[in-house]
TrEMBL record:
Family designation: Belongs to the zinc-containing alcohol dehydrogenase family.
Protein name (Swiss-Prot/TrEMBL): Alcohol dehydrogenase
Keywords from the named record: Metal-binding, NAD, Oxidoreductase, Zinc
Cofactors, names only: Zn(2+)
Biological source species: Saccharopolyspora thermophila
Transmembrane segments: none
Length: 376
């Protein structure tokens, strides 16, 4: 079958790989109809990780069940399903507590597994014609037979992940919220904050098309290439700052003129922007080691974060991978009820064979490439 295969930094190609098959009675085989490219894929694409050539990318997957293992009880051939990017067992200590992003079963020696991702276990990615889904009863979310393809595929990762940022920050009705980053995750966080009843949401980025999308959904765009976003937001909040904050950028954070990366700049900006005792959610990715890090500390995943300021302000911060399973059913039902339409973030729907060019353009953030959905 055809699949998106990583070759070397800044290069993926459409390769011919072996079609996956049922390996365990609890597996299903899904024929992929939609699979999205993620900002997290770019970490591997840019050669910032230990991802080896040959890995098949793709953790945001949806499709139609083609084959069902004999131990599967709730699913049938022909069911339309979307899978959380986290592979999870459903029965370990963390899964039972709803923390499915930290499953203790699926990736021995590590808490958490994912499809098509370096160090996240032996699960081949879904930017391909077929995907094997383990623990299928737990990992497949059933969808209506038709409609909302581009909305539902976002249930695999970014809609729940943006929502998770708001959950970590406990965004509540009437609050003022800042979201750093208006990439797909940041836009979903801003959208989720508004769904949760926030009164005002500031969306910080420097990419015009992304800021325009933020404005389109009712957020207030803040262009950090035009000055210090902390000051711009304080001016609009009577000097107080926001009640809550979300970092949807991660360690690839850039300085205002985008001339270089400064991995702690967003963490420090969010600490400064959020008022005393406010909460901060950090779905943006930080890594325990980054061989290409800007200095010795960054190489070991240690950043210069203003912890003293956080202490002074009595803030609370939550971070980590999104437990997609915790929110995907509820968010699916918001889509079905017509109360959420996350696909506003999708800029391109392409065939699988267009993936190499899509990766290149999404990586360069050109031509409005915000979120790409591939249809194998
Ligand atoms: N926690 C999770 O489960 C989870 C899931 C998916 C993605 N992620 C992570 O979330 C992050 C965002 O993902 P994405 O797909 O939106 O990525 P993206 O790279 O498309 O978006 C990041 C955005 O941040 C902006 N940015 C850079 N520096 C900034 C600054 N100083 N201030 C404000 N904005 C700045 C960029 O212009 C870009 O638009 C990544 O780190 C990704 O790995 C985490
Ligand atoms: Zn993703
Ligand atoms: Zn588990």
């Amino acid at each position: 079958m055809k699949a998106v295969v990583y070759r070397e930094p800044f290069s993926v190609e459409i390769g011919e790989v072996e079609r996956p098959s049922i390996q365990h009675p609890n597996d299903v085989l899904v024929r992929i109809t939609s699979t999205a490219i993620c900002g997290s894929d770019l970490h591997m694409y840019e050669g910032r990780t230990a991802a080896e050539p040959g890995i098949v990318f793709g953790h945001e997957n949806m499709g139609i069940i083609e084959e069902v293992g004999e131990g599967v009880t709730s699913l049938q051939r022909g069911d339309r399903v979307v899978m959380p990017f986290n592979v999870a067992c459903g029965f370990c200590k963390n899964c039972l507590a709803g923390n499915t992003g930290f499953c203790l079963t699926v990736n021995p020696g590590f808490a958490g597994g994912a499809y098509g991702y370096v160090a996240m276990g032996p699960y081949t990615g879904g930017q391909a014609e077929y995907l094997r889904v383990p623990y299928a009863d737990f990992n497949c979310l059933k969808l209506p037979k038709e409609g909302h393809e581009a909305d539902f595929v976002l249930l695999a990762d970014i809609f729940p992940t943006g929502y998770h940022g708001c959950e970590l920050a406990q965004v509540s009705p009437g609050e003022t919220v800042v979201v750093y980053g208006a990439g797909p995750v940041g836009l979903m966080a801003a959208y989720s904050a508004l769904l949760r009843g926030a009164a005002r949401v500031f969306s910080v980025d420097r990419v015009p098309e992304r800021l325009a999308k933020a404005e389109e959904i009712g957020a207030i765009p803040i262009d950090f290439s035009q000055g210090d976003p902390v000051e711009m937001i304080k001016e609009q909040t009577d000097g107080e700052g926001t009640d809550k904050g979300v970092d949807a950028v991660g360690y690839q954070a850039q300085v205002g003129d985008a001339s270089k990366e400064e991995p702690a700049i967003v963490l420090n900006s969010v600490i400064q922007t959020v008022r005393p005792t406010g909460r901060i959610g950090v779905p943006g990715l930080y890594v325990p080691s980054d061989p290409g890090g800007v200095d010795e500390h960054a190489k070991q995943g240690m950043l210069r974060v203003a912890i003293g300021k956080m202490f002074e302000k009595g803030q609370v911060m939550g971070t980590g991978q999104c437990n997609v399973k915790r929110y995907n059913r509820q968010l699916r039902d918001l889509i079905i009820a017509g109360r959420a339409k996350p696909s506003f973030v999708v800029s391109h729907e392409l065939s699988l064979t267009e993936a190499p060019e899509a990766y290149r353009k999404f990586d360069q953030r050109v031509e409005g490439y915000t979120k790409v959905v591939l249809h194998p």
